[in-house]
Amino acid sequence: MGAKRNSAALDRKKMFGDPILVGTIVILLIFLVLFIVYPLFVLLIDSFYTEGKLTLDVFKKVLSMQRFRTAFSNTVVLGLLTGILSTAIGLLFAYVDVYVKVRTKWVERLFNVVAQLPVVSPPFVLSLSTIMLFGRSGIITRSLLHIYDSNVYGLKGIVTVQTLTFFPVCYMMLKGLLKNIDPSLEEAARDIGASRMKVFLTVTLPLMLPGIGNAFLVTFIESVADFANPMLIGGDYDTLATTIYLQVTGSYDSTGAAAMSVVLLSLTMILFFIQKYYLDRKTAATLTGKASRGRMLIEDKSVTAPLTVLCSLVAIFVIVMYIMIPFGALFKLWGRDYTLTFKWFDYLFKYSGLKAFKDSFLLSIIASPITALLSMIISYLVVKRRFKSKGFIEFVSMLAMAVPGTVLGIGFIRGYANGLFKSGLLQGIYGTAAILIIVFIVRSLPVGTRSGISALQQIDKSIEESAYDLGANSLKVFTSVTLPLIKDSFLSGLVTSFVRSITAISAIILLVTPQFLLITCQINEFAEKGYYGVACAYATILILIVYASVLIMNLVIKFFGTSRKMKAQ
Amino acid sequence: MLKESKGIRIEHVSKIYQDPKTGKDFKAVNDANIVIEPGKFVTLLGPSGCGKTTTLRMIAGFESPDEGEIYLGDEAINALTPNKRDTAMVFQSYALFPHYNVFDNVAYGLKLRKMDKDEIYKKVMDILDLVELSGMESRMTNQLSGGQQQRVALARALVVEPSVLLFDEPLSNLDAKLRVSMRTEIRRIQQRVGITAVYVTHDQSEAMALSDQIIIMNQGVVAQIGTPEEIYYHPQTQFVADFIGEANFLKGVLTQKNGDKGVLEVLGNKIEVENVENVGQDKECIMVMRPESVQISDAGQLPCTVQMSCFMGSYQEYHVNVGNQNVKITDFNPKHKKIYAEGEQAFIKFNPCDIHILEA
Questions:
Q1: pLDDT per residue over A512-550, tens digit each?
Q2: HEC string of A185-207?
């Protein structure tokens, strides 16, 4: 195999002729190892290695805790329920969107709004409004139905809220798949004599099955990793994510929390691998080609009417829940006194509200360009270059997707509170803005990378090769060709990571120190205390910020995006 | 162009890939030895998967050879990255930068060379004039036809004045008519500039029309190097004969040999043949007959039975059987000739110098 090594050696030599490329890869590797691999690795050490030897003691201790066992089964039950319900509702929406002729613009817009909601939705917004609608002082339960002991907390509350939060994601995933089914397959079945129901059950559904499994697992992971909603509306229904948090903040037992984190991490990782390496491929295998032509939409009123009405009702319900938030901030005392007032906003700005917005905004605005650029660089390297550590880089940046925020938070605490491997090295970043920004970056990186990769895969490899061939080095190729061509993806990555950062809570709540006030933590704090008015005021402004940034992004892409310039005639 | 163009030497170059399915190694290019003279137009021709594109990409630097060395002029270039090599490539998909207009596309390489603005302008305009795209400089590339895009790609490669111009199946995305006119254009420009060109294609008529020299590759191995005429009239292997143009193959034994003349025994018929220097006496050999270089006639060297006779317009196509072997004959301008019908007995007639003999 001496010959084989020859080309590898030449490739390496060529790569080192390009110091910028090598430097970038090295910096990336350091970043990924330090801030994704290392924190998770530390958790493993923590839970298997005490006083200098390998042991299962920590695990035994954790496993014997009733609290942990309840939390574990709670988490699995919650994941299953939310996964099934979200996928079912998502499938319904996708089917209606792709197959049914919707007569009114109005319904189409409803669908659009629903599809966009998860992008702009801060965590626990739906929890807040569920409490305000159906809680003890709920507008529906108390004021309309006169039920005074309504209890929304617990499993049913979390499942409802999570389902409503996550089903739009399933909807978008499944919609993409349904669009790729060649209509002639179904027409062939209809033609042979199958009824519409029969076609759905024997053709459409089997084709969709891997995709449905995919959507289910994605939601399952999201649900299991979700911290904010169980925290707020879970009541005494503790999940792993909240138990880990309480283990650290309540019992000050961070080794125990580390062991629990390993369990939670294993759970999400297993699901993630099934999803990514098994179902993803299967989906690609069954649904290969693009639809050859348009689909005959179902016009039969007996089918369209009930489906459209059902979807519209769900959509309206979700939208109403969002509308609740600003009202919650504007009423004097929810459930008792519905006079309009600005007192909650006044309160907010009087007591450190401004600082919270400033801190959140500043940290997010610093994190987002770094994230966007990093994810574009990673996508470029993964899609367009060949080098040894490429597989590792791709794997780790995708891995971050499967790491629940709480787990990452514990990892950072264990890994950095006393410096790297408790050596004091890098201890300086603990408790600073830097570590918060890093967490923001790590949390948004997978999303940006995924969108960058899919954008780059659309671009013919030879476009970059020709720039390279004409004399450009890697940096020049990236800045003059790659980046301009994926500008849209970069811009949306910029905003997505900003939005994700400013609405982040799960990892950040474990790491934030009193010197920083973050909006999400404030919402959590006030909602916990029952000050729904202030929580809603914060949430309202947060939604406005997020919505405004998405609007600005769309405008910028519209006027400065690549696609516009390239399409210009 | 003022710059001197350089030749290329490929010495014992191999490229090993791993079959993704079986995990086994195979040689995409196997011990290739090629010398390309400066200023020549050379085509790498072969069926898909023969290693021609890999060879081209090794010259450009996108792939690294596993064995051997590639020289540009006298310089060994194995370790140079594509951007440091004095080559420029025209890609199959044109690979124009969609976010630049025609001018900026062509100027890209010049800007990288930190050239003066006025000079860039002049050079770009000159080259656009050469490829007959004057007046198009502010168009976006998607506003151009396929042929125009091809010209931009060519201009962009030419303008940096490389020592060698590389073409990776540049015409395969064009329709048939445009392909013919563009290849004349490419040849014209190459001649005018006097640049060394290496051209990859699987289209033999393209190779014939363009090249000073054709390199036929098969399964990673260089099968033959020669001028188009040499390749067509004197193929060295059955593969080359079969790949270039159409050919009939009849097996025989060289029973007599006298200098370059001899007698070949084919299916019981003794035939006088020429050009047999390379075949030993009493050796099995293969007689190569081009369908257009033999005729069907009432008298000739090989008796045959007509299996199929079909009027094709400019020629009459016959499939005849000699013994149990099938031979195709195309008889051009058949209007006033005798037409043989299916089932008729006839003879294949040919001039011994039109027949090529290969050792089996």
A1: 888 898 999 988 888 888 888 888 999 999 989 988 888
A2: HHHHHHHHCCCHHHHHHHHHHHH
Could you please state the CATH topology (level 3) that the domain comprising B247-359 is classified under.
OB fold (Dihydrolipoamide Acetyltransferase, E2P) (2.40.50)
CA distance A479 to A129: 45
Chain A CB contacts of B140 below 8 Å: 565-566, 568
Across A206-295, where does the E strand assignment appear? none
Residues of chain B numbered 79-98 and touching chain A (CB < 8 Å): 79-85, 87-89, 91-93, 95-98
Integer Cα distance of A165 and B97 in angstroms? 41
- At A219, list the tokens: 């939601």
Whether the CB-CB separation of B272 and B306 falls below 8 Å is answered with no
**Chain B nearest-CA residue for A11:** B64
Domains and CATH numbers, chain A: 73-240+303-333 (1.10.3720.10)
A152 C-beta neighbours (distance < 10 Å), count:
21
How does pLDDT run across A244-259, given as a tens digit for each residue? Answer: 998 888 888 878 888 8
Per-residue pLDDT tens digits for A216-228 = 998 999 999 999 8
Percent of chain B with pLDDT over 70: 99
Residues of A in contact with B16 (CB under 8 A): 3-4, 7
- Give the Cα separation of A485 and A479 in Å (integer): 10
Least confident of A200-214, B93-107, B291-305, B311-325: A200-214
CA angle A152, A327, A314 (to 5 degrees): 55
Phi, psi angles (nearest 5°) of residue A163: -60, -50
**B109 vs A460, A462, A470: nearest CB:** A470
Average pLDDT value over all residues in chain A:
85
Distance CA B344, CA B335 (A): 19
Among B87, B61, B63, B66, smallest CA distance to B13 is for B66
Q: What is the ipTM of this complex?
A: 0.83
Contacts of B92 in chain A (CB under 8 A): 462
Q: Give pTM, 2 decimals.
A: 0.83
Is the per-residue pLDDT at A87 higher than 90?
yes
Q: Does the CB of A484 have a partner CB in chain B at under 8 Å?
A: yes
Tokens of B357: 């003999």
Q: Report the CATH architecture of B8-238.
A: 3-Layer(aba) Sandwich (3.40)
